[in-house]
Amino acid sequence: MSSPAAEAHAHAAEHPVEHMPTGLNTKKLIMWLFLASDCMFFGTLITTHLIYRKIYANLGVDPIEIFDIELTTASSFILLMSSLFMALAVSAIHKGNVKSFRWNLIGVIVFGGLFLAGQVYEFNHFVHYSGLTLESGTFGSTFYLMTGTHGVHVALGILWLLSWLIYSYTPRFNSAEHAIDVETAGLYWHFVDIVWIVIFTAVYLIEYV
Amino acid sequence: MKSETTFQSTTMAPPVESPVHEPPVDRPAGRPRSNIGLVRPDGRGFLVDWLTTVDHKKIGIMYFVFAMGFFLVGGIEALLIRAQLAVAENNLVSPQTYNQLFTMHGTTMIFLAVMPLSSAFFNLLIPLQIGARDVAFPRLNAFSLWTFVAGAVIINLSWFFQAAEALGWFGVAGGHTDMVPAVGWFGYAPLTMTEYSGIGTDFWIFGLQVLGIASIAAALNFIVTIINFRAPGMKMMRLPVFTWMTLITSLLIIFAFPPITVALGQVMFDRFFGTSFFNVEGGGQPILWQHLFWIFGHPEVYILILPAMGIISEILPTFSRKPLFGYSLVVFSGAVIGFLGFAVWSHHMFTTGLGKVATAAFSLLTMAIAVPTGVKIFNWIGTLWGGRIKFSVPMVLALGFIFMFMMGGFSGIMHSSAPADAQQQDSYFVVAHFHYVLIGGSILAILAGTYFWLPKFTGRMWYGSLGYWMSGLVLVGFNLTFFPMHFLGLIGMPRRTHSYLEGTGWQPLNIVCTIGAFLLAFGILLFLIDLIRTVRKGPPAGNDPWDGRTLEWSIPSPPPVYNFAKTPVVKARDALWADKHGSSRQKLGGVESGSHGIHMPSNSWMPLVASAGLLLVGVSMALKQAGVPFCGYLAIGGLVITTVGIYLWALEGPGGYHLHPRPNEGGARS
Hints:
The complex is a heterodimer of chains A (209) and B (670).
Chain A: H1 4-14, H2 26-55, H3 63-66, H4 69-94, H5 98-130, H6 137-167, H7 175-204
Helix pairs in contact in A: 2-6, 2-7, 4-5, 4-7, 5-6, 6-7
Chain B: H1 2-5, H2 46-52, H3 56-85, H4 95-129, H5 138-166, H6 200-228, H7 241-273, H8 286-320, H9 327-340, H10 356-368, H11 370-384, H12 393-416, H13 418-424, H14 428-458, H15 466-490, H16 507-537, E1 567-569, H17 575-581, E2 589-591, E3 598-600, H18 606-625, H19 631-652, E4 657-659
Antiparallel strand pairs in B: 1-2, 3-4
Helix pairs in contact in B: 3-4, 3-5, 3-16, 4-5, 4-6, 4-8, 4-14, 5-6, 5-18, 6-7, 6-18, 7-8, 7-9, 8-12, 8-14, 9-11, 11-12, 12-14, 12-15, 14-15, 14-16, 15-16, 18-19
């Protein structure tokens, strides 16, 4: 944060009474709560997958033969690095360095896009070469719904950050005012990244131990 | 950002003192434009104003009106069910229609009546009880309202398609003729598969999905509001109990709804894309649906009852003229109920064969949840003890709540014992139990709350004895309807049965139930009559007709659009009571709004636009299942509308203008 005090002061000027006894930023708070809710969302998806994979195992397929662990490892690394760019972008906008903010944001978008491209390639490969489709039993159903939902989260995040990138070229953009909004988007991005770490571990890696 | 959208009103309206109508406030002149150049819908006519409002009080009133409408629809469905069951071997409605009626009755009452009625109270009261200008995100609040309406419309539109089917205007080639949901309110798999149910199930899936978005958005908004928008001095342990229960309910909503969202998504994929989440042929397990549904469904029970407990905890102290007995215990009990509510879902599934350990664990946890509930009841009785009790209508209903809710609680404890539950499962005993907690609990509290806060929000006081007649009729009719159902269940009458044979011996009690149901309906009719005549010609209520304890009673009735002329500074729990009757150190303080007045947000079309897109998605997807051409494109169009609405919403900016309350207007007491 460039200066939390200055921000609080700006807020106090707008609303003469300081309404926030907790000192938590309202936008960040609602994003944290949304992410808490999203934990239950992904928790349900991952649990469904693991129940059908481990307890009511009726796969009809061998995950190791289907997975391309090298590709997924590479795309997981790319997604992790996008989070590094995200952190740098947030840091840059808090310092008022719009140029650095934009370049780092482009980094996030490109790396997020690469991850999505990897997922599209993976899905395409699974469907056409391994014959794993939505209809092929519980493994296909739960795998595609879970990873697909994660992919949609990544895509929405890219759309959100792309919107900020474009907005940063408009005259209304003000790094001091919008730093908190970008930080909120960053929270979302990091969360989606963390969810992938869980999915990568519980769904892919665990087959290889 | 501010310079273009802020209005500094300089002209002061002449003070017109009318005790009933809201005093005129300064309005911005001219046509304000948003950041993207669109004209903001501020200061327009009646209809535009209500469609675009971001004022929590107007949104609350709309929640109340829409939910009351659906409450009546659900009530009519219930009366049809009771009329069908009145005599043995009756054929008033067909078995198919009967299935649709009980499904829609349950779905409507839970998602379209009790939940939004609770939301109405959240909206009306929370900002006032914590001394705030509005909720944290006013436009998100409007989005929650319109998304609720969209979901409700999606589910209920199915009736029109059923009517069209009956008239031969609409049909599904080779499909089921169920256009209305007919799978029960918990839609057990595999009944929801395309082989066993028609497009009614799709209306149900998409309607519930949209309602889930509305509930989660509203819950996030209220948690942030309660945590961050409290007036100075309003510490957490000084919050009114209703506010506390709203906070806990909202937390339950954000954690309970995602599992049902995923489960509904899975059913949707099963129906549309041939997946096998619940399809046994593909290796799916229908029992998974039950788990996912009840992981949502049991917290949902507390989502329905905790706001009611909050309302009761406001009414009892006011009419006993005592502070709430054991405030902290009541608050912590609410929190414990909310927490334990996530750990008892499998008691809905005792008869599915979970295994001894799981059954014993869920049995124990279910018994444990009776402890905090009992704590609350004893605290309410402690509040009454030695109080100067005034039997006003809200108090009569609140006392009825304690007794009726306890009856529902007792049969609930009976269910917690797995062997007993095995006898009661799917019988009318269960029907009796949950109607005792939902009507005897939630609905009685909502009626009580309506009588309690009606003077505040209409500025008019109800009068005469109609309210007492209403209370009596509702209580008698309710008990006459549901008490015999305990016996019906114990002598074997199954739940969700279209008809029964002469020789079963169920006939006499069923007649009693049906008579009771019509008495109850008559009581609700009296309630509506009393409501309407109060709104039309009730005498002026004054600011504080009950000698109230919380901040909403410190401001004029109806509250001015900006709520508090001066932001209250709270010095004690029961802030207003302490101000009136406490020591001099506990007087309410007030902070002036400063030279530029009170900042008000602009109205907006965008929440309505975003919700309208969701309505289109839901209806199109259900019709797509029916084979109507181009519906897939329509659904995509709906998503585009929602996306455009959200983008314009983000880009238009909150806008706003400033109001100057007149010196003699309410707000924090001097």
